[in-house]
Design a protein that fits this description.
Elements (H helix, E strand, L loop, with lengths): L3 E6 L4 E4 L1 H7 L15 H4 L1 H4 L1 H7 L2 H4 L4 E9 L5 E13 L2 E11 L1 H30 L8 H39 L5 H35 L9 E4 H18 L2 E6 L5 E4 L1 H19 L6 E10 L2 E8 L29 H11 L4 E6 L5 E8 L4
Parallel strand pairs: 7-9
Antiparallel strand pairs: 1-2, 1-5, 3-4, 4-5, 6-8, 9-10, 10-12, 11-12
């Protein structure tokens, strides 16, 4: 994040502006010619656009040697719109005589946007709490009832954490930047102070980036829930060959986790359906087993068994992993339900699968399980959904 630097003499005439100041303010230049007393047209309005800076710079308070700090205000861009900024204005003296000011300022647009996002997510999270309370009173269970609103609240809850971490890191970085700006204004910048600041920038930006990427992935996953039936055209494909193709893409993960997979499917079953949706369902079922069913690198078995039942196909998927506790069975298709929160699981995989099966493939899915006896999902899918 760069800082704009603008210096003025005691009459308020701009005598210098660095490239970052030109960029933030939208100026082409700050002078008409090599004569530094002749200001360019876009700079003539500088005193009006940041009137508070100019006034502060020329007050007795500043002339006495005190620094003026403003955490948040607005400067006027050359194109007419306002830019949220923070700034520090420090007096310049020649001997004991006040000769002008130097102002360091930052565009805080990104910080403001992140703060607004955090407020929105906290508001939605609070709404989620109210919805949960209403659901408890009304006796609503499973995916029905308030699932739609709970999904939005769930997004808020999940996204709130990485955005909150990002805002905290950005705020801390901002405070340290202000400290450095003051050191520069006081002409006390040392190599060690600069090195420490750069190390802080590297660490803070890494934290911000990783958490915003995490939030981005959550939002992308949530978008998948609203499956667009018009996004994919129906096509004819061989079911066994297609399952084999999907499994092939997952072989590295299966091999790494020592999982053996078996496919029992007649060779001649043809579907005229939506292969993309079916691929997502198959992938989510396998990944659910991988994440929840087995210990890390723990050996296990997965099995797809397909039966041709006239106008539908029945797909039975099983694993011999840890299984699901009875009290959790009714929640497995609910958005953001997971028993591994904070360990890389979003709680969206089975909900997305449920949504795709019912809204795109026009089928059904059910689950049965006991602890330490694995899990079984039964899918009934039309060969040609209407």
């Amino acid at each position: 994040m760069g800082e704009g630097v603008v210096s003025m003499d005691r009459q308020g005439t701009v005598t210098f502006a660095n490239p970052e100041a030109l960029r933030i303010m939208g100026w082409r230049d700050w002078k008409l010619s090599d004569d530094e007393s002749e200001e360019a047209p876009e700079v003539l309005g500088f005193k009006a656009s940041i009137e508070s800076v100019t006034q502060s710079a020329l007050t007795a308070e500043t002339e006495s040697g005190e620094v003026v700090r403003v955490n948040e205000t607005a400067f006027k861009h050359q194109e007419g719109h306002s830019i949220p900024v923070s700034y520090v204005s420090s007096p310049i003296f020649e001997g004991s005589e006040f000769s002008g000011t130097v102002t360091l300022f930052q565009d805080i647009t990104l910080r403001k946007e992140m703060e607004k996002t955090l407020v929105r997510s906290e508001t939605m999270s609070a709404l989620g709490g109210m919805v949960a309370g209403v659901a408890g009173v009304a006796g609503v269970a499973g995916v029905a009832g308030v699932a739609g609103v709970a999904g939005v609240a769930g997004v808020a809850h999940e996204v709130n954490t990485p955005i909150g971490v990002s805002v905290t890191s950005a705020s801390y970085l901002e405070s340290q930047t202000k400290g450095l700006m003051q050191i520069v204004a006081d002409n006390k910048l040392s190599r060690s102070a600069l090195d420490n600041y750069l190390d802080l920038c590297k660490e803070s930006t890494a934290i911000i980036l990783s958490n915003l990427q995490r939030a981005e992935q959550m939002i992308k996953s949530f978008k998948q829930i609203a499956a667009d039936q018009a996004s994919e055209q129906k096509s004819r494909f061989n079911l066994k060959a297609y399952i084999d193709d999907v499994i092939r893409t997952l072989r590295p993960e299966l091999k790494k986790n020592q999982l053996h997979i078996e496919i029992v499917c007649p060779d001649d079953i043809e579907l005229e359906s939506y292969p993309g949706a079916l691929s997502q369902v198959i992938t989510n079922l396998i990944m659910n087993s991988l994440v929840h069913g087995f210990s890390q690198n723990g050996a296990g078995n997965l099995r797809f068994e397909v039966m041709d039942e006239d106008k539908i196909v029945r797909i039975i998927y099983r694993d011999d992993g840890k299984g699901i506790a009875q009290e959790h069975l009714e929640d497995v298709f609910a958005p953001f339900f997971t028993t591994r929160r904070g360990k890389g699981s979003s709680g969206l995989g089975l909900h997305i699968s449920h949504n795709l099966i019912y809204t795109v493939l026009k089928g059904t899915i059910s689950v049965s399980s006991k602890l330490n006896e694995g899990v079984q999902f039964v899918l009934n899918i039309p060969k040609s959904p209407e």
